Amino acid sequence: MSAQNTSYLKQLDGIRFLAVTMVLVDHWSDEKLKLPLGFLGVCLFFVLSGFLITRILLNAKDKDEALNRSHGFSLKQFYIRRTIRIFPIYYLTIFILYILNVPPVRDKIVWCLTYSTNIYIAIHESWLGVIDHLWSLAVEEQFYLFFPFVIFFIPSRYLVKVLFGFIGLSVLLRLVLYLNGIAWMASYVLMPTCLDAFGMGGLLAYAFYHKNEKVKKFITNKVWLVLSLLLYAGVIALSKWISEGQSIVTIVFLRVFESLLSLFLVGNAAYNFGGIMKSVLENKVAIYIGRISYGVYIYHNFVYNFYHSSPNHPTIKLLNKLPFIASNLPLKFIFLYALTIGVATISWFLIEKPINQWKEKFGY
Predict the structure, then answer these.
(1) What is the DSSP code (8-state) at residue 359?
(2) Do the beta carbons of residue 256 and residue 231 sit within 8 Å?
(3) Which strand (E) or helix (H) includes residue 362?
């Protein structure tokens, strides 16, 4: 395969920017936003992860076979590279929160250290305060644990069927949980119930990697992007009509339509959007925020949390001194976003970027 298939795709950083911004808008709306933008943002991250990881692993598998080497080599490289990228600021954050005794980190430290906060949430039907958002990182880690084995050890001719199987399995699991009266959080946060998002990203990566022109033509036809957006909006409207709370629509089917819209967004970005979307996704600010989006996502809930920030929290004290900003939601959002970007920027240049350079020693 040519380098084109595994090269850097600029607009995907713009997609990360969109995804993390949707999460922040949702989390910082002080309950005034009545749309599940956070759900869509996280799903967009999952589809993007499925796309990028599948593309990387397909390339590594081809290299292994071309060089007649064991897939064990690429497995080792993959896990080392993921560790270098993900673990440093995650565990640093957990360590700082533990030292500062920020609830509920000390009580739930084993769940935090083992990337299993999502399992805790599902079992106990309870969120975890300022570390709520770490559930999605747990899902990604759990996906990384098994997915390379799927790529490396299942014959390539079966891979498309397996990825479609992921989609069907996750919807079925959510339906089974719903019919058995299990709390909606379980369907939302468990890794197997998120597999439709990863599966769609994987299918896109398979077509992209193998230069399937029919798929490219289909994905880049803006009619399907618009249709997926209308379907997503229709499902949201239906769910609101049925109930303001959770229903079979939001629990079982919403993620399918979130994933479908995300598939077309990621796909068009991979093949390069034109027009307005090109200018948005290739904007220098969007690309920069997309590049540091991992830090933005990790830190945002500690910069400000509507439910769990105490009056003594530095951000709350600062907002109290700036009542004009505190009382104006758009200004407040921009202010909080700027603070979070500042924290993530320090993290990027002092910790993440220097450590990421180690990945060069562990190429495929």
Answers:
(1) G
(2) no
(3) none
- pLDDT tens, 126-184? 999 999 999 999 999 999 999 999 999 999 899 999 999 999 999 999 999 999 999 99
d(CA 311, CA 135) in angstroms, rounded, equals 26
Instruction: Give the largest Cα separation in the chain, rounded.
Output: 65
C-alpha distances out from residue 340 to 4, 14, 24, Å? 34, 18, 10
Residue keyed to tokens 């700082």 = 96
pTM for the whole structure = 0.95
Instruction: Report yes or no: 149 and 132 within 8 Å, Cβ to Cβ.
Output: no
DSSP 66-82: HTT--HHHHHHHHHHHH
Cα distances from 35 to residues 235, 239, 251, 300, 336, in angstroms, run: 12, 11, 15, 19, 20
Which DSSP category does 244 fall into?
A: S
Helices then strands, each counted (H, E), the chain: 20, 0
Q: Which of 269, 289, 285 has its CA nearest to residue 277?
A: 269
Using only the alpha carbons of the chain, give its radius of gyration.
20
How far is residue 277's CA from residue 268's CA, in Å, rounded to a whole number?
10
One-letter amino acid for residue 284 of the chain: K
